[in-house]
Amino acid sequence: MVSAGRSDAPPRVRAFAPADAPALRAVFASSVHTLAAPYYTPAERAAWAPAAHDAAQWAARMHALQPFVAELDGRIAGFADLQPSGYIDMFFVAGDCGGRGVAKALMARIEASARERGIGLLFAHVSLAAEAFFERAGFNVDQRQTVERAGVVLRNARMSRRLAPAS
After folding, report:
1. Beta carbons within 10 angstroms of residue 15's beta carbon
2. Is beta strand 87-88 parallel, antiparallel or unpaired with respect to 121-127?
3. Are 80 and 20 in contact, with CB atoms under 8 Å apart?
4. Which of 53, 95, 103, 153 is the most buried (most CB within 10 A)?
5. What is the percent of the chain with per-residue pLDDT over 90, rounded to a whole number?
6. Which residues, 6+ apart, have CB-to-CB distance to 49 below 8 Å?
7. pLDDT given at position 1
8. Contacts within 8 Å (CB) and 24+ apart, 5-10
9. What is the pTM of this model?
10. SS3 string of the chain?
């Protein structure tokens, strides 16, 4: 049974548009404060995704990253980018969209794009909350590390995956 306003349609992944920036910020905050809650303290989450932010700076960052945008049930449900080096800088799914195939669809787009662009190695700094998903996607932990955000130390892992050439 499907609840009202929720379908079983798969996520649709598309290119970023500048007007997406505010919705991507909302997805980022929702992901950090909901999906990462079991892994990080309230203080850690507040430092990582503070309520107050510079909207113009965020929009400029999104414009520079050119993330893929996942839509589900007619709204933005997640986003992820792939840089020319193979670095995945941001990979976030809205807190109420976890477990609905959004991350899987974004990773499939990243892998396809990497192969099209001749990128053979993907790598990211992955939160504790996302580590299991990245492992299921074939990534390995290269190094456990910490990063500082607003004076608060957060734990994460550098993970990577070598892609097999397209057949």
Report:
1. 10
2. parallel
3. no
4. 103
5. 89
6. 28, 29, 32, 33
7. 35
8. 5/73, 6/73, 7/73, 9/72, 9/73, 10/101, 10/105
9. 0.93
10. CCCCCCCCCCCEEEECCHHHHHHHHHHHHHHHHHHCCCCCCHHHHHHHCCCCCCHHHHHHHHHHHCCEEEEECCEEEEEECCCCCCEECCEEECCCCCCCCHHHHHHHHHHHHHHHCCCCEEEEEEECCCHHHHHHCCCEEEEEEEEEECCEEEEEEEEEEECCCCC
**Residue 162 β-bridge partners:** 121
Give the model confidence (pLDDT) of 27-42 as tens digits.
999 999 999 999 999 9
pLDDT tens profile 52-97: 999 999 999 999 999 999 999 999 999 999 999 999 999 999 999 9
How is residue 107 written in tokens?
A: 């990773």
In the chain, what are the domain boundaries? 12-120
Going by C-alpha positions, the residue among 137, 3, 13, 2 that lies closest to residue 72 is 13
Report residue 70 as tokens.
């996942």
CA torsion, ordered 146, 107, 71, 50, to nearest 10 deg: 0
